Amino acid sequence: QEASHRFALPASSPGGAIKQENFVLSTSGTDQVKGVLTLQGDALCQADINLKMPRNNQLLHFAFREDKQWKLQQIQDARNHVSQAIYLLMNRDVNYQFKTGSEVLKLMDAVMLQLSRARNRLTTPATLTLPEIASSGLTKMFTPALPPDILVNFYINLNKLCLTVYQLHVLQPSTTKNFKPSGGSILHNPGAMFEFGNQRYEVSHVHKVECVVPWLNDALVFFTVSLQLCQQLKDKISVFSSYWNYRPY
C-alpha cells in the first residue's frame, strides 16, 4: 500500500490533478548539458534543456512543445504491477479463510512476482539501438526541432530520472569500410555507429545528466520491504508445514 501511494502523488488542488514537480538535471565535472524537467506522475510534461556544443561552444536551447508530454513507460508499468499485487491480496471476501499452507504460498509467489516486476522496471532501463532512439517520438517533442546530429533519451534508473544526449557526426563514404553498427544498449559510448535514413553516423560525444526523484526512492525501499515480508511468511509456513508433517501422533 505504501509503495502504491508513492505512484499516486498527492494532488496540488482540490480538482484532483497530480501535482507537478520540477527537477534540475546536473552532473559533476561538466556543464555541457543543463536542464529542468517537470514530472507529473508518469509523464514528463515539460523539459527545458541547454546544450553547449564542444566544437565551437555554441549554446543550443530546446524545450518541449506546449502540446506535448512524454510518458515514462517504466513508471507506468511499475505502478500497474503494484496495483496487480494489491488486487491479488484484496480480491477475496473479508471473511475468507485460507485452508492450506500451499494456498498461501501460491498467493505469496504471485504477489512476489508482481513486486519483483515492479522493482525491475525501475532498476533495469530498456536497451535501445541508436536507430530506435533516432526514430523515437521523443525526437519530435522539442521546439526548436532537434538538429539531425543530436539524439536524446529519457529513462528511469533506480531512483533517478536520466537524460542522455548523443552528439553525432556523419560518416563519409570513404570512412565506412570499417562500419560496424552497434546493438542495443542502455548507454552508447563514443565511437558507436549506426545507419538511419540512408545515412551513417558515429557518436562523437555522450552527455548524461540525472536527478534523484525522492518518491521513486521510497517506492524501491517499500518494494524491498514487501518482498521480505512475503518471504518471511513463506518461511514460517514452510516451518509449520514441516512440523505438522513430522510430529508424532
TrEMBL record:
Species name: Crotophaga sulcirostris (Groove-billed ani)
Protein name as it appears in the record: Protein rogdi homolog
Coiled-coil stretches noted in the UniProt entry, renumbered to this chain: none
InterPro entries: RAVE2/Rogdi
Family designation: Belongs to the rogdi family.
CC per GO annotation: RAVE complex; synaptic vesicle
Subcellular location: Cytoplasmic vesicle, Secretory vesicle, Synaptic vesicle
